Amino acid sequence: MVPLSAYVAVSAVLFVTGLIGVLIRRNFIIVLMAIEIMLNAANVNLVAFSHYLESMTGQIVALFVIAIAAGEAAVGLAIIIVVFRGKISTNVDEINLLKW
Amino acid sequence: MKFTLTMSGADLLLLLPEILLTTWLCVVLAVDFVWPQLRKDRLAYLSVGGLAVVLVTLFWFDLAGISGTLFKHMFVVDRLAIFFKILIVGTTLLVILASMDYVRRFRFFRGEYYFLVLMSALGMMFMSSANDLLSVFITVEFSTFGFYVLVAYLRQDLASNEAGLKFFILGIFAAGLLAYGISLVYGETGKIVFSDIASASATPGLVIGFLLIFAALGFKIGAVPFHAWIPDTYHGAPTPITAFLSIAPKVAAFAILLRMLFVSLATFKPAWVVLLVAVSILSMTYGNIVAIAQRNIKRLLAYSGIAQIGNVLIGLAAGTKMGSDAMLFYLLTYLFANLGAFAVVIAVGNVIRSDEIEDYSGLNRRSPFLAFAMLVFLLSLAGVPPLAGFIGKIYIFLAAIDEGLYTLIVVGLINVVIALYYYLVIVKKMYINEPVDPSPLRISGPMTAVVYVGLAGTIILGIYPRPFIDWVVGATLMFSNLVGPTASVLPPTVLPFGG
Q: CA–CA separation, B324 vs B327, rounded Å?
């Protein structure tokens, strides 16, 4: 049987991967993917805890996280397309109209 | 494991305001589809009518003292939740009235605009009732989805698109932190309902989990160091949405913070007080100092909003019933003053098509009413007597004095002076400088109504705050067992002006 700590370690690695991706990658689509990785790190945690604590709550929460992540991707890609039409770019550094 | 869901009529009654609003937003969308030729102003009035019914229902709930929990404690209705819902629905109503002129400028999707505003409002109403970590996650995301679209609503405007993108990226980044934080707290305690978590001990997982959750909520309220999205998003978004964004989601996020800190984490109070004091000092100081350098009024109000959130956090940092009372009252004064100031910005922007502070020169010559209204709102935000902001600030400082948070009060007072400076710079431009174009400004009926409501709220809360103080004191009765180490709670009767 795989110990709980293994799942938590995997999830922590995923979370940190996503976090680093958000902070250093310069393309909005990649940033979006990195955030999806962060959400999935939470899902791994939730399902693993749910199994080891023998409570269903975690799995229910994970289902909602998946649903919301899907909604986010839909809205986010639409916004990225609108920006791309105006700018012909999805690079973080070129989206710089607003500053003081 | 077996799940059962039983709901009686009495249970459904608790959901009545939300059910009404859900029905109504479907009606608004359906009417827009069925009669595409219908003037979109009618849709706005239809939405306002629906919101007025919801508002009346909420006042009835408050007076009748209806309370209870639903769905295994996921959803709670008590006077605190109702207070926040009234604030949110009231803000939405005023924002829709203030949007009507602005929406005429859109070339597409005028009808859906009102639908999206109502949907965000519904999400925020659920946020005020959230009572476990799952409902926190769902409701926070639900309310933000509408905002992502609304901020990027001006499709032809690059600034609006960019604002939407920045808001979206930081919003879902916060969602990622929130989800991971929730998973850690769940893993440590096995529970997600706020009151069940209260018995937990401080393990590393729980501490990291709650820090992540607070970071995510910090994004929602726009406190330093999570404020990065605020100025750009406020600047690029359609102005009525900026007004909405500057009040409603913050109010709703404070409802969650209040429950989480006062119910789940009451035993860890010394730890979170330190955290809140630091965030509050940073927010007030950063917001006010950067606001001085702004040349765009929306950006200025964005930074002043960051500073105002710092002030609200003083009440939360006090961590007592009086602190929460003061916080609720402050949010009420902030609602009227900030919404009023944005209403003036929308009215002026509709005519001159500019949000630069320079273009407010000589506003008094062009529209004495708008200039006077702006003066009142800015002075209330600064905390000048006898306006609402003054009572709000006094109340919140008294709550902090009781807890001996003297550093916070000194920093707060210094910030009042800094804030007064940049607010008065605008006042000087409006009243002393000469206008480039002295033609009078025309404002529409709904816009005037919004400005009048803002003025009435700001002045009445300032000179006769008694009933409102009674209201907030009643709303937080559930926290009356929370007293600080000194436990010398000043009764609200010491407030000036009959308060």
A: 5
With beta carbons under 8 A apart, name residues in chain B contacting A12.
Answer: none
Question: What is the interface size between A and B, counted as CB pairs within 8 Å?
Answer: 133
Q: Which of B452, B152, B411 is nearest to B282 (CA)?
A: B411
Question: CB distance from A53 to chain B under 8 Å?
Answer: yes
Q: C-alpha B273: how far from its chain's center?
A: 22
Q: Could A86 and B161 be called an inter-chain contact, meaning their C-beta atoms sit closer than 8 Å?
A: yes
Q: Three-state SS for B322?
A: helix
Provide the shortest C-alpha distance from residue A30 to chain B (in Å). Answer: 11
> How many Å separate Cα A52 from the centre of its chain?
24
pLDDT of residue B252: 93
- With an 8 Å Cβ cutoff, are B137 and A18 in contact? no
Q: How many domains does chain A have?
A: 1
Which CATH number is A62's domain given? 1.10.287.3510
Helix, strand and coil content of chain B, in percent to the nearest 5, comes to 75, 0, 20
In-domain check, residue A100: no
Helices B158-189 and A4-24, axial angle in degrees (round to 10):
160
- Are the beta carbons of A46 and B138 closer than 8 angstroms? no
Q: How far apart are CA B384 and CA B210, in angstroms?
A: 37
Give the nearest chain A residue to B142 (CA atoms): A68
pLDDT in tens, B120-166: 999 999 999 998 899 999 999 999 999 999 998 888 888 888 889 88
- Hey, are the CB atoms on A49 and B159 less than 8 Å from each other? no
Q: How confident is the model at residue A86 (pLDDT cuts 50, 70, 90)?
A: confident
- Domain hosting residue A12, numbered range: 4-94
Cα first-last separation, chain B: 54
Does the interface predicted TM-score (ipTM) exceed 0.85?
A: yes
Residue B423, min C-alpha distance to chain A (Å): 19
CA-nearest residue to B140 within chain A is A68
* Count of CB atoms situated within 10 Å of the CB of B476: 24
**Is A33 part of any domain?**
yes
Please state the length of chain B: 499
CA torsion sign for B60, B6, B142, B211 is: positive
Q: Do B190 and A42 touch (CB under 8 A)?
A: no
| B123 close to B142: Cβ distance less than 8 angstroms | yes
Q: Where are the domains of chain B?
A: 269-499
Residue B158 near chain A (CB below 8 Å): yes
Chain segment A15-64, per-residue pLDDT in tens: 999 999 998 888 888 999 999 999 999 999 999 999 998 888 889 999 99
What is the DSSP code (8-state) at residue B399? H
B112 CB within 8 Å of a chain A CB: no
Give the gyration radius of chain A's Cα atoms: 17
Among candidates B248, B260, B375, B361, which has minimal Cα distance to B316?
A: B260
Indicate the pTM of the whole model: 0.91
